[in-house]
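User: Here's a structure from my thesis project, written as structure tokens. My advisor, Dr. K., wants to see whether a designed sequence matches the one we expressed. Can you design one independently, without my sequence as a hint?
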């Protein structure tokens, strides 16, 4: 709703000029309360239940446990291939966990390899 600043007549939302006094109307102002945006009707698509049941969580974890396919699945779900936000969060958490485990495993392997190398080749330093 907006009114003509000149004569106070109620204007149509798309009116460019006041039909009564002819004053040029400013464009439609933005939403009255931009501080608290609420997105009603922003998701007209049917929303699956927000949460994830115990069975669904367990099923997802079991799928993630599959060596290569599980990692790919957690990657795919993390980047939004699921409409359930809870499942996406779960996939992201699992993905982070997998990366942490991978980094730790790589570091341990590296430490072990260096140790083994140093143990196997000490003669190299004594000619
Ligand atoms: Zn007017």
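Assistant: Designed independently from the structure alone:
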């Amino acid at each position: 709703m907006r009114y003509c600043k000149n004569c106070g007549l109620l204007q149509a939302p798309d009116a460019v000029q006041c039909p009564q006094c002819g004053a040029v109307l400013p464009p439609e102002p933005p939403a009255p309360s931009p501080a608290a945006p609420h997105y009603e009707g922003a998701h007209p698509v049917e929303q699956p239940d927000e949460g994830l049941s115990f069975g669904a969580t367990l099923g997802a974890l079991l799928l993630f446990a599959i060596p290569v396919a599980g990692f790919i699945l957690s990657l795919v779900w993390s980047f939004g291939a699921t409409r359930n936000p809870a499942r996406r969060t779960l996939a992201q958490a699992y993905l982070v966990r997998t990366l942490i485990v991978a980094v730790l495993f790589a570091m341990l392997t590296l430490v072990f390899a260096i140790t083994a190398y140093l143990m196997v080749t000490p003669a190299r330093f004594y000619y």
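When you compare it with your expressed construct, this may help: Residues 4, 6-7, 9, 18, 20-21, 23 surround zinc ion (CB under 6 Å).
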